[in-house]
Every structure is written in structure tokens, then in C-alpha cells.
């Protein structure tokens, strides 16, 4: 596919065939070279076929081949006559990242490294299948009230909610549209990491690029922080599966065709569209609560390891933001404020300074954008800008460079673990052999991804975080 | 081996061939679970039965594999030794053996869901060919 270069970090996929808008990819030369090696550009073009899509089918700098949408794909569809596509959210509904500050320094952590990692290893459920911190009896309540229900049951604090996207409760959720199968899966997994690229990481603020914003976010150089990456677990996976099944038939009835069945979609203002959005929002509440409960457990782990009260850990929530979600937002389209459904599949919402949906104390700085890297490199805290060209969206991670198969062929899990430990990164995996699939070399350079975000006007750099210890599924 | 693991940047896929359609479905189900954790032959377990009715053959494949994933997660088990009956091309009855999961022994990332991306089920060279991608 021939791409047109619009600037040093913006590439256009020209409109052709059934594409309703062009594609637009944010990448520098090196990232683009990798993008061209898989089928992600084809997927950017496929997304441009969605009815009601406006402006462009966007791809963030961490773009790679997904299923239906590329990972890193962003598409806004007009609410009035556009569609919603579960494939634009993905199976792990409201997968996202949460960052906790702390009162500890790197030296404090070094003095208690074994105790902290031991407590986290013991307390954090992870891996496939069952395993949860919270009882299944509160799942219905969680589907109705999200992280608010978690706080009600003693997990976390009310002030945490102010630092969650949508205050930890998505609008429009209807727990009654969640299937019994999804409930069966969710009851056994509330308060668990899962597997794959999900993790809980102890990190240190390695470098601050924007001291004023970092201060406002509650971050300082040398501070130990905790990052949690996970989503809605089996409940979300089942919800997406349930609705994709229904949409195949509904799409035929609505006379919609798409180039990839995984892009199945229906009008936003149809019965099927509204039911999906209600189920997605309820699943998102499960995910917000899931991260809230895991954060509570991380606080308990630090308190126990340091022999202090939870309050003395200083583990305040910096921010919690999703990167797999479709949200109804108002954006300017062709010069007019327009209600659109913004699908972010592996892309982070990145509201700029002054946005009314941001907490009051962060509003002047823009939204914290959390970009986790690989377990051996770094992660970034960025902030939203007021000139974002992609419906207030930014990257969600480093982006994979290698397939799981390639990565695991390169070196066995025990070597990956030894390599990380030799660099001062403690690793507590459930399965040592799976570590190779998530090895640092399997990912792109997150520093480059963060830099390209800034050059493309998607978000600006605030602080770089370096890993000290990793808990993996 | 009745299946092959396909390379994919973020997720994974498998392709399989068989002389018969029931054989293809059994091979795809075997591939999906062996990708995560191969179960040694003869490992004792509990029998499980799954029945699925769908709108088309492609839907049947996705629905069946999705149902098997649901059973695996809700029973906390890996499934193996699949026997497939097809009363019609859109109706499958599958029996399998559920073996307790060993999370520390997993060799492939747990599969979250079955996708329709690039899904192919077709007659080829006098037999059947199937390709399915999964979200991991």
C-alpha cells in the first residue's frame, strides 16, 4: 500500500475503494519501517470503511497488527448516523493502567526489596482462570457502581475516585444485559491481573521532563511508584464474544458490510448498538473496580513489608485511564462541535488542559496519560495537549515488535528472568516459560514512542519511570 | 501434529487440516488448548460435553471454540481428547476430557477469546482446512 508522508511523524493512507476517510498513522521512520512489516496498515484502511467515521482512521505510534482494528487504532463515528463496533474496543473491555505514587524512595525499596516482592507475589492473583481478591457476591453491585462499590466494600478510598477516568463508573451501564456466562467468569476473578501483557510493576521516577506537571500529578524524582495494567478479565471477554455473535446477524439486517468480520458493527442508535454500549459500560465498571481492588492489595503489601500503616505508605492514586473503550464525546468535526463515539483500541484517552471532565486539581495541566513499556525498559507519564489531532488520543504502550512465537524462540523464560534480575529488576512470574513472550526485546523502544507522541502533538512528556520489580501472570 | 501455530504480532492463530469436518473441528480445539498447555496423553480427567447450534459453519467454529474456552475457565481446567459429532454443518456436539489446569506449567499465553479476523473454513485438496486467530 502506498503511503503519503504529511510530516516527519504523520503518514496518510490514501482514501481508496470503500474507505470513507483516509487513514493517518503517527510514526517516525524507524517505527514506520516496523509498521510496514505486518498487516496493520491494511487494518487502518479497513477501519476507514466503518459507516459514519469522521476525519480519519487514526493509528498511534505503538500501532501493530491486531484483529479487526489495529492495536493503537482510533476511530470516531458520528452518533447521529454512525456505528459502534465491539472490535474497536476489543475483548478486554476497559483494559487500562493505574499509577500509584508513594512515600518511599528507591533506597527505601532496596532495603525491603525481598519483603515487598514477596508480599506482592503472595497477594496478587494472576494467570489464567480463577483467582480473586474480592468475593463474587459483590459482582452485581460492581457492575452497577464500578469502583464506588469497591470503595464501599473497603477496597481503596473515596478520594481515589477523583483520579479515575469517569470517576471509576462509566455512564450508561446496564448490569441486566450482562450474560449469565459473563457473570460466572466474573465472580471468580474480581481483583486479579490475568496474564499476557498484564502486570503489576514497582517503578521509580527516573527522570522528570516537566517538573511543574509532575508536581501537580504528585510525582517527584526518585519516588517509588506502582503501575497496574489489567482489565475486565473473563467478564469482559465473554461480553464482547456475546455481542459479536449477535452483531453478525444484526449487521445483515441493517445492510452493513465491512471488510473484516471482526469489525462487525451496528448503528449506535439501534437496539443492538445501545445494548452493546450498556454491556460495555457495565464491563468497564468491573475493570475500574478490578484495578481499584488490586491497588488496595498493593497498598497492603507495602504496608506489611515496611511495617507501617497504610496511610504512612503515601500510596495515592495518580491516575487510572483505560485504553480499550468506546466513548460518546463531543469533538470538533468540520468546524462544528459534534457528538461522536470514539473507539480507542489500544489507545489512551488524552484530554488537554481545561477539559471539564478532568479533576479540578489536574485541569490546568491536562490529563495524565500512562504509557507502560516492556518490563525491562521504562514506562512514561505524558499529559494531554490542547492541539491533539486524533480525538484526544495517544499511545497506550511500547507496542509489540515481535510475535510471541519469535520472542519465545529467541531465549527461554529462565534466561529472560536472569537477564532482568542481573539488571536489578526482580521478577515474580506465575509461569517462568511465559516470560520469554513478554521479554523486553519483543517490544518497540518506549522512549521513541513517547517522543513521537510529543512530536505529533498527541501528548507531551512529563516523567520517565524505570522498573524495579515486576509481578506477571 | 494436526495443527500449526501461526505468527501474529500481538496475538496468535492456528491452522489445521483434516480429511473430515469433524476432524478439523477437533484439530482446531486441540490446537487452541495445546497452544496454552499441552496435556500429556492419558492424563485422567472429567468428561465434559458441549453442544452448539449456529447460523453458519464459520459461526459454528467461533461459537464452539468460544464455548470450550468458557467451560475451561469456569471449570478451571484444560480440555483435551476431543470427539466431534456434526448432526448438521451448523450443529456440533463435542465430548472432551477436562484436566485440572497447571498455571505454572503454561507454555503459551492464555487465550482470552476467539476472533473472526481472517477466519477461514473451507474444503481444500479433498479435505478440510481451517484458520482461526485468537486474542491473547
Identify the notable features of this structure and list them briefly.
heterodimer, A: 473 residues, alpha+beta, 15 helices, B: alpha+beta, three-stranded antiparallel beta sheet, 2 helices, 8 strands, globular
Question: What this model shows, in words?
Answer:
- The complex is a heterodimer of chains A (473) and B (136).
- Chain A has 473 residues and is of the alpha+beta class.
- Chain A has one domain: tRNA-splicing ligase RtcB (Alpha-Beta Complex).
- Chain A is built from 15 helices and 19 strands.
- Chain A has helices at 29-35, 40-47, 106-111, 113-123, 139-145, 147-152, 158-161, 180-187, 211-217, 233-253, 271-306, 310-313, 404-410, 413-422, 446-455; strands spanning 4-7, 10-13, 23-26, 57-67, 69-78, 83-84, 96-100, 199-208, 224-230, 266-267, 317-322, 324-333, 336-345, 348-349, 368-371, 379-384, 393-394, 426-429, 459-472.
- In chain A, strands 7, 8, 9, 11, 15, 16, 18 and 19 form an 8-stranded mixed sheet that branches. In chain A, strands 1-2-3-4-5-13-12 form a 7-stranded mixed sheet, with helices on both faces.
- In chain A, α5 crosses α11, α8 (180-187) packs antiparallel against α10 (233-253) and α10 (233-253) runs antiparallel to α11 (271-306).
- Chain B has a single domain (3-135), classed as Archease, Possible Chaperone, Chain: A, domain 1.
- Chain B is α+β, with helices and mostly antiparallel strands and 136 residues long.
- Chain B contains 2 helices and 8 strands, in the order ββαβαβββββ.
- The longest helix of chain B is centred in the middle third of the chain and has 19 residues, at 57-75.
- The radius of gyration of chain B is 14 Å and the shape is globular.
- In chain B, strands 1, 2, 6, 7 and 8 form a 5-stranded antiparallel sheet that branches.
- The interface between A and B is large, with 49 and 39 residues.
Amino acid at each position: 500500500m502506498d503511503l503519503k508522508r504529511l510530516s516527519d511523524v504523520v503518514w496518510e493512507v490514501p482514501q481508496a475503494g470503500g474507505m470513507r476517510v483516509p487513514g493517518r498513522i503517527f510514526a517516525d521512520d524507524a517505527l514506520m519501517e516496523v509498521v510496514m512489516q505486518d498487516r496493520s496498515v491494511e487494518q487502518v484502511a479497513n477501519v476507514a470503511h466503518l459507516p459514519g467515521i469522521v476525519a480519519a482512521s487514526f493509528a498511534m505510534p505503538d500501532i501493530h497488527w491486531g484483529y479487526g482494528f489495529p492495536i493503537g487504532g482510533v476511530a470516531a463515528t458520528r452518533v447521529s448516523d454512525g456505528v459502534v463496533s465491539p472490535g474497536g474496543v476489543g475483548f478486554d473491555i476497559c483494559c487500562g493502567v493505574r499509577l500509584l505514587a508513594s512515600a518511599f524512595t528507591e533506597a527505601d525499596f532496596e532495603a525491603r526489596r525481598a519483603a515487598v516482592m514477596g508480599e506482592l507475589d503472595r497477594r496478587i492473583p494472576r494467570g489464567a482462570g480463577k483467582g480473586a481478591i474480592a468475593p463474587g457476591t459483590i459482582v452485581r453491585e460492581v457492575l452497577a457502581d464500578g469502583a464506588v462499590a469497591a470503595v464501599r466494600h473497603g477496597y481503596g478510598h473515596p478520594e481515589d475516585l477523583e483520579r479515575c477516568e469517569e470517576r471509576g463508573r462509566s455512564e450508561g451501564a446496564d448490569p441486566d444485559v450482562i450474560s449469565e456466562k459473563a457473570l460466572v467468569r466474573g465472580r471468580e476473578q474480581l481483583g486479579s491481573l490475568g496474564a499476557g501483557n498484564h502486570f503489576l510493576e514497582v517503578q521509580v521516577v527516573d527522570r522528570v521532563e516537566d517538573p511543574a506537571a509532575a508536581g501537580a500529578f504528585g510525582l517527584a524524582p526518585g519516588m517509588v511508584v506502582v503501575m497496574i495494567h489489567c482489565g475486565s478479565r473473563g467478564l469482559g471477554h465473554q461480553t464482547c464474544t456475546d455481542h459479536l455473535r449477535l452483531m453478525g446477524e444484526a449487521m445483515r439486517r441493517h445492510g452493513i458490510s465491512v471488510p473484516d468480520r471482526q469489525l462487525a458493527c451496528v448503528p449506535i442508535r439501534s437496539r443492538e448498538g445501545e445494548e452493546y454500549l450498556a454491556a460495555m459500560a457495565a464491563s468497564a465498571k468491573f475493570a475500574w473496580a478490578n484495578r481499584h481492588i488490586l491497588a488496595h492489595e498493593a497498598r497492603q503489601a507495602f504496608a506489611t513489608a515496611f511495617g507501617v500503616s497504610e496511610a504512612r505508605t503515601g500510596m495515592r492514586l495518580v491516575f487510572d485511564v483505560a485504553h480499550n473503550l468506546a466513548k460518546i464525546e463531543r469533538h470538533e468535526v468540520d468546524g462544528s462541535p459534534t457528538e461522536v463515539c470514539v473507539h480507542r483500541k489500544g489507545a489512551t484517552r488524552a484530554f488537554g488542559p481545561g477539559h471539564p471532565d478532568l479533576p479540578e486539581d489536574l485541569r490546568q495541566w491536562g490529563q495524565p496519560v500512562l504509557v507502560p513499556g516492556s518490563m525491562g525498559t521504562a514506562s512514561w507519564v505524558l499529559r494531554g495537549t490542547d492541539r491533539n489531532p486524533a480525538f484526544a488520543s495517544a499511545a497506550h504502550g511500547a507496542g509489540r515488535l515481535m510475535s510471541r512465537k519469535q520472542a519465545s524462540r529467541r531465549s527461554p523464560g529462565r534466561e529472560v528472568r536472569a537477564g532482568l534480575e542481573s539488571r536489578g529488576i526482580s521478577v515474580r512470574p506465575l509461569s517462568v516459560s511465559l516470560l520469554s513472550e513478554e521479554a523486553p526485546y519483543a517490544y518497540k523502544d518506549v522512549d521513541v514512542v513517547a517522543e513521537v507522541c510529543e512530536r505529533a502533538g498527541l501528548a507531551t512528556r512529563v516523567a520517565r519511570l524505570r522498573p524495579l520489580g515486576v509481578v506477571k501472570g | 501434529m494436526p495443527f500449526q501455530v501461526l505468527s501474529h504480532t500481538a496475538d496468535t492463530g492456528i491452522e489445521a487440516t483434516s480429511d473430515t469436518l469433524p476432524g478439523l473441528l477437533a484439530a482446531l480445539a486441540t490446537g487452541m488448548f495445546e497452544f496454552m498447555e499441552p496435556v500429556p496423553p492419558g492424563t485422567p480427567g472429567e468428561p465434559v460435553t458441549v453442544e452448539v447450534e449456529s447460523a453458519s459453519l464459520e459461526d459454528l467454529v467461533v461459537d464452539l471454540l468460544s464455548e470450550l474456552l468458557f467451560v475451561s475457565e469456569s471449570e478451571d481446567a484444560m480440555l483435551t481428547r476431543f470427539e466431534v459429532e456434526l448432526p448438521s454443518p451448523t450443529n456440533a456436539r463435542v465430548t472432551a476430557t477436562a484436566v485440572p489446569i497447571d498455571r505454572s506449567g503454561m507454555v503459551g499465553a492464555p487465550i482470552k477469546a476467539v476472533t473472526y479476523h481472517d477466519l477461514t473454513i473451507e474444503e481444500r485438496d479433498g479435505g478440510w482446512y481451517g484458520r482461526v486467530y485468537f486474542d491473547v
